[in-house]
Protein backbone atom coordinates (compact mmCIF):
# COMPACT_ATOMS: atom_id res chain seq x y z
CA UNK A 1 0.00 0.00 0.00
CA UNK A 2 1.46 3.33 -1.05
CA UNK A 3 1.47 6.36 1.19
CA UNK A 4 -1.17 7.98 -1.00
CA UNK A 5 -3.47 4.96 -0.58
CA UNK A 6 -2.94 5.03 3.15
CA UNK A 7 -3.71 8.76 3.26
CA UNK A 8 -6.90 8.25 1.22
CA UNK A 9 -8.09 5.54 3.62
CA UNK A 10 -7.27 7.65 6.66
CA UNK A 11 -9.04 10.66 5.11
CA UNK A 12 -12.20 8.56 4.80
CA UNK A 13 -11.89 7.48 8.44
CA UNK A 14 -11.35 11.08 9.59
CA UNK A 15 -14.36 12.23 7.57
CA UNK A 16 -16.59 9.58 9.12
CA UNK A 17 -15.31 10.48 12.59
CA UNK A 18 -15.82 14.20 11.84
CA UNK A 19 -12.23 14.87 12.96
CA UNK A 20 -11.64 18.20 11.23
CA UNK A 21 -8.09 18.77 12.48
CA UNK A 22 -6.81 15.37 11.34
CA UNK A 23 -8.71 15.65 8.08
CA UNK A 24 -7.14 19.02 7.35
CA UNK A 25 -3.58 17.78 7.94
CA UNK A 26 -4.14 14.59 5.91
CA UNK A 27 -5.51 16.61 3.01
CA UNK A 28 -2.48 18.93 3.11
CA UNK A 29 -0.14 15.95 3.05
CA UNK A 30 -2.04 14.34 0.18
CA UNK A 31 -2.04 17.63 -1.71
CA UNK A 32 1.74 18.00 -1.28
CA UNK A 33 2.34 14.50 -2.63
CA UNK A 34 0.01 15.05 -5.56
CA UNK A 35 1.61 18.41 -6.39
CA UNK A 36 5.01 16.73 -6.41
CA UNK A 37 3.67 14.01 -8.72
CA UNK A 38 2.32 16.67 -11.08
CA UNK A 39 5.71 18.41 -11.12
CA UNK A 40 7.48 15.15 -11.81
CA UNK A 41 4.91 13.90 -14.31
CA UNK A 42 4.67 10.41 -12.79
CA UNK A 43 4.00 8.60 -9.53
CA UNK A 44 6.49 9.11 -6.73
CA UNK A 45 8.68 6.35 -5.37
CA UNK A 46 8.49 5.61 -1.66
CA UNK A 47 11.74 7.55 -1.15
CA UNK A 48 10.30 10.57 -2.93
CA UNK A 49 7.11 10.34 -0.86
CA UNK A 50 9.29 10.24 2.24
CA UNK A 51 11.10 13.38 1.05
CA UNK A 52 7.77 15.20 0.71
CA UNK A 53 6.70 14.03 4.18
CA UNK A 54 10.02 15.11 5.66
CA UNK A 55 9.55 18.55 4.12
CA UNK A 56 6.04 18.79 5.62
CA UNK A 57 7.42 17.81 9.04
CA UNK A 58 10.28 20.31 8.80
CA UNK A 59 7.90 23.13 7.87
CA UNK A 60 5.76 22.39 10.89
CA UNK A 61 8.72 22.16 13.25
CA UNK A 62 10.04 25.48 11.95
CA UNK A 63 6.62 27.05 12.43
CA UNK A 64 6.39 25.60 15.92
CA UNK A 65 9.66 27.25 16.91
CA UNK A 66 8.60 30.59 15.46
CA UNK A 67 5.27 30.46 17.29
CA UNK A 68 7.02 29.58 20.55
CA UNK A 69 9.37 32.53 20.08
CA UNK A 70 6.40 34.80 19.44
CA UNK A 71 4.57 33.38 22.50
CA UNK A 72 1.59 32.35 20.38
CA UNK A 73 0.39 29.47 22.57
CA UNK A 74 -2.80 29.01 20.54
CA UNK A 75 -0.80 28.31 17.38
CA UNK A 76 1.79 26.25 19.27
CA UNK A 77 -0.95 23.81 20.30
CA UNK A 78 -2.35 23.61 16.77
CA UNK A 79 1.03 22.97 15.13
CA UNK A 80 2.01 20.47 17.84
CA UNK A 81 -1.13 18.49 17.05
CA UNK A 82 -0.30 18.63 13.33
CA UNK A 83 3.22 17.35 14.02
CA UNK A 84 1.78 14.35 15.88
CA UNK A 85 -0.43 13.53 12.90
CA UNK A 86 2.38 13.83 10.33
CA UNK A 87 4.65 11.81 12.62
CA UNK A 88 2.32 8.79 12.28
CA UNK A 89 3.36 8.53 8.63
CA UNK A 90 7.08 9.00 9.16
CA UNK A 91 9.36 5.97 9.44
CA UNK A 92 10.81 5.16 12.84
CA UNK A 93 13.57 7.62 13.67
CA UNK A 94 17.15 6.51 14.31
CA UNK A 95 18.33 6.61 17.89
CA UNK A 96 21.35 8.76 18.73
CA UNK A 97 23.52 5.62 19.04
CA UNK A 98 22.47 4.45 15.56
CA UNK A 99 23.25 7.90 14.15
CA UNK A 100 26.66 7.96 15.80
CA UNK A 101 27.40 4.53 14.31
CA UNK A 102 26.46 5.71 10.81
CA UNK A 103 28.55 8.86 11.26
CA UNK A 104 31.57 6.92 12.50
CA UNK A 105 31.44 4.56 9.52
CA UNK A 106 31.16 7.58 7.17
CA UNK A 107 34.18 9.19 8.84
CA UNK A 108 36.15 5.96 8.40
CA UNK A 109 34.97 5.63 4.79
CA UNK A 110 36.08 9.15 3.87
CA UNK A 111 39.25 9.11 6.00
CA UNK A 112 38.01 12.37 7.54
CA UNK A 113 40.51 14.01 9.81
CA UNK A 114 39.14 17.51 10.48
CA UNK A 115 36.20 19.87 10.02
CA UNK A 116 37.39 20.42 6.45
CA UNK A 117 35.93 17.00 5.65
CA UNK A 118 32.47 17.94 6.94
CA UNK A 119 30.92 18.03 3.44
CA UNK A 120 32.30 14.62 2.50
CA UNK A 121 30.95 13.03 5.66
CA UNK A 122 27.53 14.70 5.34
CA UNK A 123 27.37 13.56 1.70
CA UNK A 124 27.55 9.96 2.86
CA UNK A 125 25.45 10.27 6.03
CA UNK A 126 22.43 12.19 4.71
CA UNK A 127 21.27 9.67 2.08
CA UNK A 128 21.46 6.90 4.71
CA UNK A 129 19.41 8.87 7.25
CA UNK A 130 16.91 10.42 4.84
CA UNK A 131 13.57 10.74 6.61
CA UNK A 132 14.79 8.73 9.57
CA UNK A 133 16.68 11.49 11.37
CA UNK A 134 16.42 15.24 11.78
CA UNK A 135 18.96 16.98 9.56
CA UNK A 136 19.94 19.48 12.25
CA UNK A 137 20.62 16.67 14.71
CA UNK A 138 22.75 14.83 12.14
CA UNK A 139 24.60 18.07 11.39
CA UNK A 140 25.44 18.70 15.04
CA UNK A 141 26.51 15.09 15.64
CA UNK A 142 28.81 15.14 12.60
CA UNK A 143 30.38 18.41 13.78
CA UNK A 144 30.81 16.96 17.27
CA UNK A 145 32.41 13.79 15.91
CA UNK A 146 34.77 15.68 13.61
CA UNK A 147 35.75 18.11 16.37
CA UNK A 148 36.79 15.21 18.60
CA UNK A 149 39.21 13.78 16.01
TrEMBL record:
Keywords in alphabetical order: Transferase
Keyword Transmembrane: no
Record lineage: Bacteria, Bacillati, Bacillota, Bacilli, Lactobacillales
Pfam families: YqeY
Xref: InterPro entries: Asn/Gln_tRNA_amidoTrase-B-like, GatB_Yqey_C_2, YqeY/Aim41, YqeY/Aim41_N
GO molecular function annotations of the record: carbon-nitrogen ligase activity, with glutamine as amido-N-donor; transferase activity
Protein name according to UniProt: Aspartyl-tRNA amidotransferase
Amino acid sequence: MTLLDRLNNDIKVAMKAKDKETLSVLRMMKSSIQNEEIKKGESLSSDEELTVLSREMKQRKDSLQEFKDAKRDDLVEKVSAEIKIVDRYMPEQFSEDELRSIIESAIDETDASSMKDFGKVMGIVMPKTKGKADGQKVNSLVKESLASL
